[in-house]
Amino acid sequence: MIRVRTDQRRTNRGKTSMNGRIYHIRNALPELVELEALIDEGRDSMRISVPAHISHQNEQLPIYAIEMGSRAATAPTLAFIGGVHGIERIGSQIILAFMRSLLHRSQWDEQLQQQLASIRLLFIPIVNPAGMWQNSRSNTNGVDLMRNAPVEAEHRTPFLVGGQRLSARLPWYRGKKGHTMETENLALTEVIAQTLFSQSLCISLDCHSGFGYRDRIWFPYARSLAPWPGLPDAYAMTRLFEHSYPNHNLYLFEPQANSYTTSGDIWDYLYDGYRAANPNGVYLPLTLEMGSWLWVKKNPRHLFNYRGLFNPILPHRQQRILRRHITLFEFLMAAIANGPAWVPATTSEHQHSLQQALERWYPERAKETNVLIP
């Protein structure tokens, strides 16, 4: 579980301090306590690394990266990311619930065991542990990690929301211009690059909450209103989900820029890095944006609790959200294992998927002939 320095055990006073610190951590970061319990339970089937520690409240908070499944260098890879915004704890919680389910099922489910033998799963459930500790969107430097990458918007962004460099006291702060990315983003970038950039097929799902009345599945570019290079593959995956689960119409699939544009998006940055390293590969960086406005509408008490604007308050509603996205998670596992069945392979398939995507998400562009995307 949470590790503390051994010198605190030497005296009764130190022991009291140690117990108090553990109690403090359990109250501030129950998600980290749960994650470390999962690691202890599943250590034999997990590969665990800690790419960085974040200093906060006299603690060194770990950022854990956990792999499950195939060790093959060419195994298609699916990554689950949570806790980029510390206040959006529900994103970490649904990943932890899914990890626990996989861990328990893998002990008896032969079909799951066979599936895991052919794919790699990567989990980074808590990217911003100090931000989660202090119930803030940003990290302890006041930086919004989703506005911190060295990526500039190609179109006008909403005031402040699109990323600002005015002050860390204002939300959506990007950090100082020219500075390196924050430690949390450097750790995330390192793990994603090492795990995904060499794969011919990979998907990541970054779990957030707080925008709109519907759950959305977003894909890049956040910085641009123009179609992005992965659009045909994103459309093929969208149609696969909708065809496979016709009554599971929870999600609005769309480019993020259809809702708003931003500078500094870490997934724009990582997608560009993947494309530079692996131009013939397929990478779909997806964002699950859970529509917490609906929770507020159903229970106005959320308005009086900042944390409640991004997380369900009532226990039964939290349980419902933890169940709600299991179908999506398991679909992504099946999709990554069966890429040849749906990823456009030929020029004609690619062009057809592009045309369908344009008609769905860029109707004005669909009328143009010989549409080119970057």
Pick out its properties.
single chain, 374 residues, alpha/beta, eight-stranded mixed β-sheet, 8 strands, disordered N terminus
Walk me through the structure.
The protein is an alpha/beta fold. The protein has 13 helices and eight strands. An eight-stranded mixed beta sheet has the order 1-2-4-3-5-8-6-7, with helices on both faces. Helix 2 packs parallel to helix 3 and helix 7 crosses helix 12. The protein is globular, with a radius of gyration of 21 Å. The N terminus is likely disordered.
Describe the secondary structure blueprint for this structure.
Elements: H1 12-28, H2 30-42, E1 47-56, E2 59-69, E3 77-82, H3 89-105, H4 110-118, E4 120-124, H5 129-133, H6 183-196, E5 201-209, E6 215-219, H7 231-244, E7 251-255, H8 266-277, E8 282-290, H9 293-298, H10 315-324, H11 326-337, H12 347-361, H13 363-366
Parallel strand pairs: 3-4, 3-5, 5-8, 6-7
Antiparallel strand pairs: 1-2, 2-4, 6-8
Helix pairs in contact: 1-2, 2-3, 3-10, 6-8, 7-12
How helical, in percent, are the residues?
25-40%
Secondary structure tally, helices: 13
The oligomeric state of the chains shown is single chain
Structural class: alpha/beta
